[in-house]
Specification:
The chain has 223 residues and is α/β, with parallel strands linked by helices. It contains 9 helices and 10 strands.
């Protein structure tokens, strides 16, 4: 299992100049339970798990062998071991990410990326969760959040409880003051170029029953 990596928040907090004590604390059991209930009333199924190992086990159960799978860039997914599992091929999924990276023609690769948000199963982290039930994510290009509102057949979100904050307004602040600076530091390390907040989605209500599932982990993960 992957665990902490060079891109985990713990290893980027100094250069990102963020405040984990303010923005990455695990809430009380009552607060987590209230958050899960609020999310459920908004049409998203919540599965609570105790740790990253159980989260990965749940993912394997939710996605059938042979299913078409795509994921957005996510430190949380790396930390629970999802990327290692995907690369191993042991889950038996059809990885659209592998198809994209194997395409050498730039135009064809861009088209595959555009279509990948319509995958049967799209797996993603989240940047913030409000106790009122909204789930939020931002990225630079929309290659991750484009799947959230409608495009993906089934959307599976994976998040630590450390991303829970009291209100929607605080969730937006968490992205600006914590998640984005860390992602920017990661981008500088990984690519040598800065990131930016380009596209944001607030999942406030889901109309299609069973389409969206949140795996909520009682650990501090990602950002």
């Amino acid at each position: 299992m992957a665990g902490l990596t060079q891109f985990s928040a713990e290893n980027l907090a100094g250069e990102a100049r963020v405040d984990p004590a303010r923005w990455s604390q695990v809430p009380s059991e009552q607060e987590v339970a209230e958050t899960a209930a609020a999310i459920g009333t908004r049409g998203t199924r919540v599965i609570r798990v105790k740790d990253r190992r159980e989260a990965l086990d749940v993912l394997v159960r939710l996605i059938p062998r042979g299913a078409e799978v795509m994921n957005g860039s996510s430190t949380t997914l790396i930390e629970i071991g999802y990327e290692d599992l995907l690369k191993s091929g042991k889950a038996g999924w059809v990885s659209l990410h592998d198809r994209i990276t194997a395409e050498n023609d730039a135009a064809k690769r861009a088209e595959l990326r555009r279509k990948s948000v319509t995958a049967d199963y799209f797996v993603s982290g989240a940047n913030a969760i409000a106790r009122t039930g909204e789930i939020l994510a931002c990225d630079r290009t929309g290659s991750r959040v484009g799947a959230w509102p409608f495009a993906a057949g089934r959307l599976i979100l994976v998040s630590g409880t450390n991303k829970i904050v009291p209100t929607l307004e605080e969730a937006l602040r968490r992205i600006r003051e914590y998640a984005f600076p860390l992602e920017n530091a990661r981008a500088m390390r990984a690519y040598g170029t800065p990131s930016r907040i380009g596209k944001c989605v607030i999942l406030a209500n889901e109309e299609v029953a069973g389409r969206v599932t949140l795996i909520l982990i009682d650990e501090t993960l990602g950002y």
